[in-house]
Prior knowledge:
The complex is a heterotetramer of chains A (265), B (518), C (468) and D (157). Chain C has 468 residues and is an all-alpha fold. Helix content of chain C is 42%, strand content 3%. Chain C has four domains: 32-134, no CATH class; 151-268, Cytochrome Bc1 Complex, Chain D, domain 2 (Orthogonal Bundle), CATH 1.10.760; 282-365, Cytochrome c-like domain (Cytochrome Bc1 Complex, Chain D, domain 2); 376-466, Cytochrome Bc1 Complex, Chain D, domain 2 (Orthogonal Bundle), CATH 1.10.760.10. In chain C, the strands form two sheets. Chain C has a two-stranded antiparallel ribbon. In chain C, strands 3-4 form a two-stranded antiparallel ribbon. In chain C, a hairpin with a 4-residue loop joins strand 1 (67-69) and strand 2. In chain C, helix 10 (221-230) packs across helix 12. Chain C is elongated and about 110 Å long. Chain C starts with a helix and ends in a 5-residue tail after the last helix. In chain D, the strands form two sheets. In chain D, strands 1-10-9-4-3-2 form a six-stranded antiparallel sheet, with no helix packed on it. Chain B binds chain C through residues 58, 61-63, 100, 103-104, 107-108, 110-111, 114, 174-175, 270-273, 315, 318-319, 321-323, 325-326, 328-330, 332-333, 336, 342-345, 347, 349-350, 352-353, 516-518, and chain C through 1-7, 9-10, 13-14, 16-17, 20-21, 23-24, 27-28, 64, 66, 75, 77, 122, 124-127, 130, 138-140, 206-209, 211-213, 219.
Amino acid sequence: MIPSITKCKRVLLIVCLFLFPLTSVVLAQENDDEYAALVESGKKVYEVRCLLCHGSKGDGNGPVGIIRRAERNGRVLEIVPRDLTMAVFRFRTTPTGCLADDQDILNIINNGVPRSFMPAHEKIPIQEREAVKEYIKTFSYRWEEEDPCEPIAVVKPEWVGSSKSVDKGKIIFKEMKCGECHGYEGKGDGPKSNDLKDDWGKQILPFNFSTGDLKRGSTPENVYITFTSGLDGTGMPSYEDSLNEEDRWHLVSFTLKLMGKLDKK
Amino acid sequence: MSNSTQTGLGKYKENLLSIKKSFLGSFLRSGMPTSDKSRTAVVVNNFFLHLHGAKTHTNTLKPSYTLGLGLISFFLLVIAFISGGFLMVYYSPSIGTAFNAVKDINFVVISGKLMRNIHKWSGEAMIIFVLLHMARVVYTNSYKRGREFNWVIGVVLLILTFVLNLTGYMLPWDQLSYWALVIVSNIAAAPKELTDIFGITQYFDIGGATKEVLLGGTAPGQNSLTRVYLLHIILLPLGICTALGVHFWRVRKDGGLSKPDIVGDRETGVAFISPPQKTGGIFPTHKTYGLMELARGRTPAVDNDVENTVTSWPNLFVAEIAVFIFTLAGVIAYSYFIDAPLKEFANAAIPENPAKAPWYFLGLQELVSYSAFMGGQGLPGLAIAGLLLIPYLDREQEHFGIWFSNRQGRMVAIESFIVGAAAVIGSLAFVINFGWFRNWWPKIHQLWIIAINPGNLLLGFVVAYSLFVIKRTGSTRMGAISLFTMFLVCYVILTYTGTVLRGPNWEFYWSASQWPIH
Amino acid sequence: MQSRFYLSLLLISSLVLIAFMGIAFNREMNPEWKKYQTEYKDFLVKNAKDASTRQRAERIQIGMQQIYIKSLERSDRCMSCHRGVENPLMAEAEQPHRQHSGNYLENHPIAKFGCTVCHRGQDRATNMREAHGEEHTHWDFPIIPSKYIQGSCAQCHDYEMLRQEGGEKVARGEELFRQKGCQGCHKIGGKGGDLGKDIAGIGSRPFAYFSMKHVVGDHNLYNWVKQHFDDPRAIVPESEMRVFLTDEEAELLTTYMMTFVTAEMPRNYTLIKNVIQPKIDGESLYKMYCIACHSDGRVSLYDEIFKRTIPAIRNPAFTRSIDDEHLRTIIKEGRKGTQMTAWKVSAAGLTDADINKIIMYITMNRPEKKPEPFGFLKYKADVRHGEELYNIRCEFCHGAEGKGGEGFLGINLRNPAVQKADPEFLAITVRDGREGTPMVSFGMKGLKLDNQDIADMVAYVKTLSQKK
Amino acid sequence: MIKKTRNTEGVSRRDFLGLAAFGAAILGSIGVLAGSLRFVKADVYSEESKKFKIGKKENFPIGTTRKFDDKNVFIFSDDNGLFAISAICTHLGCIVSPSEFGFQCPCHGSRYDENGNVIGGPAPRPLEWYEINQEVDGTLFIDAGKAVPQGTKYLFA
């Protein structure tokens, strides 16, 4: 599914460009001027706050360009600002392949993304954030074409984090070969970890459980969503089909253990 | 034969021919020891044996009475002296060569490693056996009837044993030596803690001065090694020999080993190599055979039954030789399997972690962790004072020479053992789990800790409990049993904790296998 | 009763004593080395080609061998087991009998040098475990693995000679040491930064100096150093060391580390053929002292260890806007509050001449064209407006308080180097941005702020240090 | 006395026990003593080896006389080969020096001829001659721990 998007990227973009004026006409007809004003104000905020990195077209080619971060092991990782024109988001609550829902985008705007220099914008007025969210949606046709999916239902069982569950999770971690990327001890140093690329062809690193928090937050629910929805655009697939819900929760227990979240209690 | 008829050369020839007989006769003056008279003469006429009585009470020879502990301690000292003499052949007390000399002894000297082990283990075994010997003396109620001062000498011998071992520990100049020396010199300097509190350190620095005298400088170095060597080779051996001479001499003066006032019939001479001859011999009955008749003071043996004595030759000497060979074999067997430790060359920059004193001081190190002064000097001083005072505070004359005096004594000993163990384990458990003042109020004045720390409380409890025992039983003897039992239990448990249960940074571990790997 | 008891005790004890004297005697008479020497002798006798060789082999006396070298304070007893070390007949034999490899012994006669001076290990020991200094034998310098052994050559020889004649590894290690910027953090002979530990004498540091907790395999100096190069934080979790070495480079540098020993060889042992000092120009100085943090200096980096952005100091945009004098002050005095330490002679041992060379190298690509002057003084700056602008434009890189730091791309603006800088310099930086860094141009070329706005922002930035 | 007669068998058994015990004890003590005395002689000491290399034979053309001062050995070379003579006087270990008649000891006046034979003074034995040997690579070495009969000279190819 994802490769097909990549493949048709250029075609779609062209189509998108053609469709853009058309859709705005449609939009204008369907919604009142209020919406247009919202997008317009979103654009202004975007230009001041977001354009530096994400670029005027939302393609991630802002003036700041590529950010370089030297990892602890000395390797230099290039961080590219998110290309918003694909509407592919990693941190969603929706199933894989779906669009992110509004709250997901707002969450990222609000909380930022740790270790990627995307700052948190909680301090700016909520209207501005809403406006920017709407403006971001104008970068991709997908927001027009597709309907947002239902968010994944998360019901955390009580036994998550129990030592039994951790043990089961450990077995699943081994069976699912998570260690090939994340390292057999969860330190992000698996055999494949050095040559992982994302859909934009840039090098990325598998998560090292021994350092810091997950980018979307480290609550058990967040971890569960990551397993269920996958991180679209990266090598982290969705395990919705390959693992049943219970197993995924076991895996959550084990990852929490790896992150040291269970020790503090 | 008439001398006048013989020529000078004839006399010379005769003397030459009878040299075997005359030589033997010159040290066996009374002929071969075949009769009680000659057996007695062997003992009396021999320099090495005359320390013994000519006759020995059968109770003394009863293995279950003495357990041979005093003898074993003495023989261990003899073994340590001889093996130490051999080690001196290679050792040289210089920080440049001491370590290499020990390495050479280990590696290129035939039986060198064994000799070093023998020296090390016989010395350390002495501590155990001297303590056991003391326990025997306490529990058999033998520190009375003129033996009070000999008990004091015994305590001095205990201290000398400790110090001899400690100084020997420092001679190889490895990491163990160096850091033990550092710790000990700082314990010597511990009164500083007290003088600091009173603000008189700059006028009267007794701790600092002691340390400087001990080290021959302000930090361990060549001078320290020379001084420690001097102590270990000359001063302390001289001291221990002198004290030991007095100790033995007093045993004889005080009428030989203690024994019960009444020795049952079944104890009397059954199957001795030389059974007691009740009549005959050169001495009349109802007499002792020592010089103590000339001496003033109590000679408890005078009025007692001498029927239960046998001639020392050979009965006592067989026993002594057997114990000697037993000791020697034990030490050699132990030394064959267990090597004396030798760590890296001394390094002033990097302490061992945990920097442990030799094991026999680890009980103290456990106490030192609150206050160097109290743990290193105050409490040991008080404990020794307490030991010294035992014969003077318990002057009941009954039950002399009987293990645990009576049934009550046995009960008191068991009870004190349990109570003492509970107290020391309890205090250790409390401190390990909750810490002490410094952990609760980091800024607390050191005086508080000197005054109130687990060691002091433990000591106070031991004293209070033995007083309670005296009050309850109405007998000071029971108090003595209780006090000594608790002292022994505290020493053993604290030493065990310090040796086995303490790991890096003096943290608590159930076993050394749990130590974080260094 | 007693007599039988004591006699039995005597008998049993004596028998035990005799037994232990017997087994002790047996142990003393059959040391490990005797076995090897017998093997060696048997081998020679069996494989003798002619009668005279056989005779000579049969004449070999079995006994402890020792090379005592007074000037080196060594008593090497290695040959007690390795008796065939000089014997060409043993070239193919198994250890411990094999002849020494290579032609090293030609110029280093064993009688003069012994073994442990190069191979380390415990000279006095006479059994393999302790002589090789394996774990738990309490010997600080176990036998050095052959891959690091060239570290011993540098005790007597110069690197130029080693490079040409059989000491390539240590020579390359020395080169690497200069190229990887080790001295940026570590002092050697008084020269170098302060961030890391002084590595003088590391090759002869006692075992106990190192924390061996995380070392894999034998706990010894060599494994510690090698694994520390592989991943510093795996060995010392709180380490801030920046390394990125291949396995081979790590080995070479480990070899080089073994040359840092405190004991000096006696004069008559050393052989310095070429006293050629390596060429020290701006580039090599930059590599020695700067490269570890600043990399090639073209682009700025956010560093995960330091938790801050390291500036790109060779970037034309930077060198264009800064003059040599300003650079010199920064290098000499360091930057307070950052990992940039002072490099003047009294602090890190760099002479003025060295610093000049480094500055020359840094500013090598400085564009001819000076930036267009901003004319800060012309504008009447409004600090309050500057603050408003700062809070939308600058805050997410430099932080609301201007402190930069963890998670922020921007530098610390409250740093004296910024606070005391000429406002003109700051204004030009804001206007034109810094190529190669995330600092974008806010002027007309970039985000299209006008000069008044920029002046306001700069004025506000200048007031940051007064804020709490 | 009565007991003794009643228990003769026991006595004799006891005698045997005593004999065995004391025999074993004496044996054990001798063992300990022997082991202890062996202790004072080490396998090696911290001193230079008695063997030392003297270089190639080309260094010693015929007619050479040289003394290795730190080793106290003279080395000579004549038509019949190389030979090494100790410089240590056999009387009490002083160092002899060459003289017109051979060697002269300064301590008690011992005199030796050029082959080391005693010609005067208290010396009991002639000076020792040492073995000279050749390594595989042709280097010569003297083993001052190994005396050879007087007159042993070595010719090397």
